[in-house]
């Protein structure tokens, strides 16, 4: 047990699921017993009002029945509770309870019990005020210097101070320049109210000033000039804090009668009554609440300060005197006197932990009890050992690196895409240039084969496609139970997606014998949206800018049988041509030859042909597979459209360069803006201010330039996202044409796609150009190198270059052209080639630890790879021969060359 832990004297847990805040705790003799002992009053946002009379208990887990005096469920949430003399015809203490739309004053009375159940306490409503505005906080005191009774002041959420003199409403005033409510406290020494405005400054308003100020019914009325005798409301003094305040406190003890304490988010302030600062302490933690109290030393004040690291700190002005650990983060703390102990620290957490503690160093006398000596049951231990060994063998009985999927999965996921579009459409954009945006429903069915807990389903889809809901929290499922969720997918942008595939990810916990809480698992499933979601049938275009032709080895097929849903509305009755009008604007035409096995795809946009080409290849495979054709082949015999592809690369690169330029310009303008602000602040703080010399005009101009640059940078970022999606589409089209022209296997096609598309999206730290260049260069050095010697040399190259935005795209385009050329000449794409290459002896020596550094790659074209592993220069290096002993088989001595 820690020596400096706050000693638990009495504690309680108030309800379940209730919330509490700063104003929900107060202490005092609420039942007017006259004994001088305090009771603890707690109100919650759920409307529960509780009154406790704590006393020492042996167990902190259960609250003794006689410690709780009263528990009442009120109709409204309780924002704040205060004790004071709030009834005009009585000098007794009464309880004021602030609700969002009501202020109630209660009396608490106790009746002595005649049996062992103890005294009985009753809550009686004395009077209440219905509020016209939503309340935020309240304060009380002897407003106007009236002694013997307390008045109440309620601050509303819209900045109005409402004053109540016991049973009657006095007046209301709006605070000037109000935006958000802050702490409110009454200073009885100066008869003024202190509050922290949204401008992060402490403001003081005298009660007399508030009383004679202009009457206003709304916040707008206070800014209008009226002919009444009132005056415009202005603060008596203002102190700039520069941060939001958590609490403001005005201590009432005599020797510190002129101090005001403010707890900020990062600082603690102490001011005098006239607004002059007395001291300030910078806090190195995040505070939660504080409480000033009387000190034994004259001229100083003690403070209880709680923070978010569960610490209770005691300060004497700015000096830390004590620190104790609390079991929770308090939102309110008070000092109370109980019959058995004086000066008890009463703390309340946001979730209802109420703790009465004291600070001391009394040690704990707990000692660990001795374990009963008993003989071990060897038969039971041996049985447990065999069971654990069996579980270990079953868990390690695999020879693969990746785990194999079990035949009986814990969860089965099936995704079904509707065959028809939604009516009405769920799309956020109703139409694009007159074309209606459709949506389609996707249903996900889940069936549990075991107990499933805390499951969450996430939908990911390619932009600019969107869904109505992308996350679902699923209920726990028993064995054999099933559930389903539905969502709609639609186009949410004015450009085409790079892929129509989506992914369903289900994360869940599956309890086991050894882990009852559940083993976290993830299950993924994919689905494909129809092409009709992003396009409609149209009339074929005769002249286009870009064309690609695909060849097959089977007889010509009518396009109407392949694209049946588009041929119904097509104008071509022969079925030899189709046109796809994409919703964002471009049109793609598909033509079939009547005599040959060729099919042409043409459009004015290169990257937009990708979706039609992919769909055509996929439907060809399905069509001939149903016919039972096993030797169906498809190919591309034309030249690769590298120049068209490089247009997308250059466009994406220029937008990245523009984004970097906008960032640099914004940094420069921000530096200039801050410099002008400092100059202006220096002028304004000077007692004899000099002329501004057009600094204000320069500040406005710089501000306008910063805003214009920010808008331009945001627009460029939107264009960059669109350009990257188009670049992905054109890259996938290039991969498809290259795989068809060279007959690549699915594994080789996957390697090629991973090389040319290493990123799913651009990031400020890493972009597509440098990532793709590094991946292509790696293939050129390894499996696509000219000779095994060059490939082995690249394995010894240990230096790694730092990826960054290149100066231009010339090197990247040369490397991509070289990649396509080497694949066309018979290069084999494989990731296992490095392990199959026999590395020369001298290269092995260079790659070994302590060898010389390899010669760096020659900058420029990818063909200029190093031809020799290294070059020994004997002119300036001495060679030392070290003679080793003979081997056991009688071989010759080994000579080892060491470069000095």
TrEMBL record:
What keywords would UniProt list here?
A: Coiled coil
The answer to whether keyword Glycoprotein applies is no
Question: What are the coiled-coil residue ranges?
Answer: 371-398, 703-730
GO BP terms:
cilium assembly
Q: PTHB1 GAE domain: from which residue to which, for each copy?
A: 437-527
Which Gene Ontology terms of cellular component type are present?
A: BBSome; membrane
Q: Which InterPro entries does the entry link to?
A: PHTB1_GAE_dom, PHTB1_N_dom, PTHB1, PTHB1_CtH_dom, PTHB1_hp_dom, PTHB1_pf_dom
PTHB1 C-terminal helix bundle domain location, by residue? 744-823
> Which Pfam families does its entry note?
PHTB1_N, PTHB1_CtH, PTHB1_GAE, PTHB1_hp, PTHB1_pf
Q: Domain named PTHB1 hairpin: which ranges?
A: 639-741
Record flagged with keyword Coiled coil:
yes
PTHB1 N-terminal domain mapped to chain residues:
1-363
Domain PTHB1 platform positions: 530-637
**Listed name of the protein:** PTHB1 N-terminal domain-containing protein
Tell me the organism. Answer: Takifugu bimaculatus
